Amino acid sequence: MSYKTIDGLMRHLRDNGISISGSVQKRQLRNTGYFHGYKGYRFFGTSSNRLPFTSYDEVYATIQYDSKLKSLMYGRMMFIETAVKNIALESILQYTRSENIQDMYDKAVSSYKNCPSTFTSEQRKKSQQHKLNLEGTIQSSLTRAYKAENPKITHFYNNVGYSGVPLWSLFEILTLGDFGFLLSCLTFDVRYDISRRLGLNLSADTNCQLVYKYIYTLKDLRNAIAHNSVVFDTRFRNIDPTRSMKRCLEQEIGLPYVNFKSIGDYIILMCYYMKLLGSTKTEIKAFIREFEKITDEYRNSVDPSVARIVIRADLSTRMATLKNYI
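Given the sequence above, the corresponding structure tokens read:
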């Protein structure tokens, strides 16, 4: 199979209606890659929804916009992950009066014997299966961490004075996805307590599922950022928001709708969490303004036909509503 040189790829792009020439654009193409760059960013959402690029400048501007979004969100995402983990940990520790992982399984995790009395036999079996799955997930996390010689875990296993890894150390190594699964396995009482500590809108969440549903939503974005995947068109989105997930943000912030089909909705969710977690109005509004700034810069760097696809028409209105809520 033949391959194309950088010059060959530039000719190929020109043959496909994308103007590209000169040493600067040649270097940009080499640095961003034809497959990661052009082929990864030439569509919005799905490969069938091609962006009407006519110049490589527009392609490169889209790649830069995506990169700036990831840089903007990364630090805030780490803050949210750490804070929510610590709040959940505090709740579980106080509920079980123990830092022993087994005590969490026995007292705070829903199982056949401690699920609601209204549960059917099948629902009880499902709870028990989730508990067993959780135990397997946590054991795998500990095994990986020990094999990787993570000192947060080896410190306990390689010390004859300790009998096991404490719960707070486990939380340090859990991925955001595994953390979300743990939250989903907790009893209603514990989920309710965590939701209350966070300040989630419980009137929109009678089953206390938001505490893990939103974590799953943020997990998709966090992983896309961490692995340098495309984020500007939310193609990383793996779950459809439930009615409660939409209603909570609509009621709290005053939005007419929420669907997580644009990156703006993820900015909204992050700001909601930042406010719940005590970030200052100044910090949150600076985050929103920076998002608006890099989005406006992008809008001005591409043809209006491209901007209309990438940037939601009501974005400015939604951001104004968000700032009023903050």
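Residues 56-96 form the longest helix (41 residues). Try to locate this feature in the token string yourself.
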